[in-house]
Amino acid sequence: MKIERLPLNALRAFAEAARAESFKSAASRLGVTPGAVSRQIKQLEARLGIALFARHANGVQLNEAGRQLARDIDSGLERIAAGVTAARERAHQAPLLTLSAPPSFMQLWLLPRLAEFDAKLGGLDISLDASQSLTMPAWQGDGARLAIRYGRGPWPGVTSHRLFGDELFPVCGPSLLQQDQSLREPADLASHTLLDVGWESRQGIAFPGWREWLKAAGVGDRVTPPQRCYSLFGLALDQAIAGRGVMLANHPIAMDRLKSGILVRPFGEHYVLASPMTYDLLVPATGDAPPAVARFIEWLLAEAAAFDRETLGGKAD
């Protein structure tokens, strides 16, 4: 079987351009010119024999083939990260704590708070794993593996601690509210692009999304279902911040950006959909955690409880 060897620079240029659907933005991230990004992507399209973007006078837009390749690249990057972690554990002493969590939650909620843990408690080597594996051996010596998952319990074979519940609400960039199209009530969404996140549940359950929100808001028969779907919350969030549409977000994904002002809630505190999903910390079902890991668990549960009180009022289960 012949393995196609694709130019890595072209794949990197495509991945950056796909994230923002902009050659100019990709060029800025990569430190090259938009022309160089365009040439790299044309090279990739020529090697593949397919177009990945629809090109317009005012910019570019991913086509279906481009969206699929972007999803595959995201998945591949997750596997590479997991492989690097596994290689490190084989070659060296295992990290004291390996914490697995959904990629967007890790990036947008967990990472900004870990610096506080290091400053307050520290003394713990934490390896972050963006995989969705639920392999969780019993406590062994000073090593530990924990996981944060989004879904509905019970979680078999582990002990779970609820971090917080969830609510869903529309968000967008402030610039979208300054455009000509009105966005004052849910029916106005019919004139806007709805951004969605397509991901699969490891439990085989359907996550609530735009269809459920539109129905609850009373406009399910008047607003077209989402037109653009992304593989990660972070990708959709970038598009919402850029003013390219309205995203259905939740508190842990959006709250820090709402506080900073780069995201807004067009309907304020109204039209919120309570979700049956929760974020849970999963730990081995048997044995006792090493002292340093126990301190981390205690800190994480306290941090999550504070977040729950401040943003959800402790009411979403």
TrEMBL record:
Pfam families: HTH_1 (PF00126), LysR_substrate (PF03466). GO terms for biological process: DNA-templated transcription. PROSITE patterns: HTH_LYSR (PS50931). The keyword Transcription applies. Keywords: DNA-binding, Transcription, Transcription regulation. It comes from the Bacteria. The keyword Ribonucleoprotein does not apply. Residues 6-63 form the HTH lysR-type domain. GO terms for molecular function: DNA-binding transcription factor activity; sequence-specific DNA binding. Gene3D superfamilies: Periplasmic binding protein-like II, Winged helix-like DNA-binding domain superfamily/Winged helix DNA-binding domain. Belongs to the LysR transcriptional regulatory family. This is LysR family transcriptional regulator. It comes from Billgrantia endophytica.
